[in-house]
Write a structure and sequence with these properties.
The complex is a heterodimer of chains A (117) and B (111). Chain A is globular and about 45 Å long. Chain A has strands at residues 3-5, 10-14, 19-21, 24-26, 32-39, 46-52, 60-61, 64-69, 74-79, 88-96, 106-107, 111-116. By secondary structure, chain A is mostly beta strands. In chain B, 0% of the residues lie in helices and 58% in strands. Chain B starts with a strand and ends with a strand. The relative contact order of chain B is 0.33. The chains are: A mainly beta (117), B mainly beta (111).
C-alpha cells in the first residue's frame, strides 16, 4: 500500500517570503500522480498543483511550484511571495495510475502554514 | 462548468440513528465519485469510490455504506451511527485521469 508522509506539522513564514513544504511517499508503482491540496479554515479542499510521475519537468502554477524527485520519492511544494490568503492546511496526496484515473487519493496528515504579516 | 453539491453542511445526530448524506455533480457525465472522511486534525481517508451507476468499491470496513442510484448522485448511509462516525465528510468527483474536485463537506457530530 502507498503511504504519504508530511514531516512538518506546522510551518511559519513572513508575508512576501518563500516557503517550502515537504512531502515524501512510498510506492512500488512507476506510474502515478501527485497533488497538493489546500484546505483553508472553511475546510474546502482546493487543488493547488499536480504532477504526473512520467513527466520530468516540475509543475508550476503561478506562485506555486514543486520539486519532484522521483528516485527519492520526494514531492515538495514551494510557495513564492507568500500572501495572507495562503494560510491554510496543505495536504500532499498520491494517486495510482493503475485504475485509469479512478483510484482514490492517499493523503498525508497535512502541514499547517501560518503567514506572519 | 462542473459543480458539486453536498448536503447538509452540518448535521448533529444521536448514536444509533440512521444517516444519509447526498452528493450531486453537475456539468459532466459518468464521473468517478468518492467519499472521504477527515477526523479532527488529520488527513482525508478514502471510504468509497464509484466508477458508474451501481458500482461501489469500499476501501475501509466500517459502519457505513454508499450507493450510486444515478449517474451523478452519490449517497453515504448508515443504519445505526456510532460515536466513532463523527467527522468531516467530503464528496469528490473526477473524470478520466483528471484531478479530484471536492464539495464543501458535511460536518457530522454524533451525540
Amino acid at each position: 500500500a502507498q503511504t504519504v508522509t508530511q514531516s512538518q506539522p506546522e510551518m511559519s513564514v513572513q508575508e512576501a517570503e518563500t516557503v517550502t513544504l515537504s512531502c515524501t511517499y512510498d510506492t512500488s508503482e512507476s506510474d502515478y500522480y501527485l497533488f497538493w491540496y489546500k484546505q483553508p479554515p472553511s475546510r474546502q479542499m482546493i487543488l493547488v498543483i499536480r504532477q504526473e510521475a512520467y513527466k520530468q519537468q516540475n509543475a508550476t502554477e503561478n506562485r506555486f511550484s514543486v520539486n519532484f524527485q522521483k528516485a527519492a520519492k520526494s514531492f515538495s511544494l514551494k510557495i513564492s511571495d507568500s500572501q495572507l490568503g495562503d494560510a491554510a492546511m496543505y495536504f500532499c496526496a498520491y494517486r495510482s495510475d493503475s485504475g485509469g484515473g479512478a483510484d482514490g487519493l492517499t493523503f498525508g496528515k497535512g502541514t499547517h502554514l501560518i503567514i506572519q504579516p | 462548468s462542473q459543480t458539486i453539491h453536498q448536503w447538509p453542511a452540518t448535521l448533529v445526530q444521536p448514536v444509533g440513528s440512521p444517516l444519509s448524506l447526498e452528493c450531486t455533480v453537475e456539468g459532466t457525465s459518468n464521473p468517478n465519485l468518492y467519499w472521504y472522511r477527515q477526523a479532527a486534525g488529520r488527513g482525508l481517508q478514502l471510504l468509497f469510490y464509484s466508477v458508474g451507476i451501481g458500482q461501489i468499491s469500499s476501501e475501509v470496513p466500517q459502519n457505513l455504506s454508499a450507493s450510486r442510484p444515478q449517474d451523478r448522485q452519490f449517497i453515504l448511509s448508515s443504519k445505526k451511527l456510532l460515536l466513532s462516525d463523527s467527522g468531516f465528510y467530503l464528496c469528490a468527483w473526477s473524470v478520466r485521469e483528471g484531478p479530484q474536485h471536492f464539495g464543501d463537506g458535511t460536518r457530522l457530530s454524533i451525540l
